[in-house]
Amino acid sequence: MIKKTLLLFSAIALVFGSFNFIHPAEAATTALADLNAGDLIRGQSLSAVYYYGKDGFRYVFPNDKTYFTWYSDFDSVKWLTDADLGKVQIGGNVTYKPGIKMIKINSDPKTYAIGENGALRWVTSENVAIALYGSSWNTQIDDVPDGFFSNYTMGSDIENSSDFVPSQETASAASIDNDKNLKSPYIINLTDSGFSPTSLNADTGRAIKFVNKGTSKHSATSEDLLWGSGTLNPDDSFIRYFNNPGNYEYFCSYHASETGTIIVTE
């Protein structure tokens, strides 16, 4: 296993913010319907690996260093056809697993520990860093390209070792779903007789998935034309977050009489 992992690691090369790895060319593909939250997925043509979130989006590993804070190898990666991978919308980037490493960027002299959901916690002194990560603390720092730094948010400073316990932070992030607080989406089916349900009460922070269960083309298009699914063929889907409370009315651009409303509350 160690030899296999080292061979895989040696094959890594950054490609458009992700990376390549060796895998048998004859790998069988997995159907979209057989994916489960937490799966690692990739397509056939490109070797970028993604995390399939509980909300139905795929999340990008910006580089190999981020990936290896979460996983030790690529053994569980599932292959999709390129067409199926393209149907899974990108939801954002994965951040470092909390507690594992510290990070910094060249344009910022501060060193940060990583908290929940990519919260940057400034380690304010060398004594605190030693208390958290031991005498070799300075070997536990990764440089993050400036372009990836925006994936993170600013958290509270670490003034004392009691402010941050790396092992506890790591344990609390059992998965990327857990770290990002991803939840399964609400489902609205697009049928040949209309939307089902036609009215949905939803909470902020939880995605809504539109699924074409009909036999013809459908869409979900907002009345104000500010958002829309585009054409959804049978079995296609579209996922969107509605992060602000309010009423969102929409219609099918192929069947204008088919309408629906989403009522979002805090």
UniProtKB/TrEMBL annotation:
Domain of life: Bacteria
Positions of the EfeO-type cupredoxin-like domain: 183-264
Signal peptide region: 1-27
Keyword line: Signal
Entry-linked InterPro entries: Cupredoxin, EfeO_Cupredoxin, ET_Amicyanin
UniProt source species: Candidatus Uhrbacteria bacterium GW2011_GWF2_44_350
Short name of one Pfam family: Cupredoxin_1
SUPFAM superfamilies: Cupredoxins
Name of the featured protein: Copper-binding protein, plastocyanin/azurin family
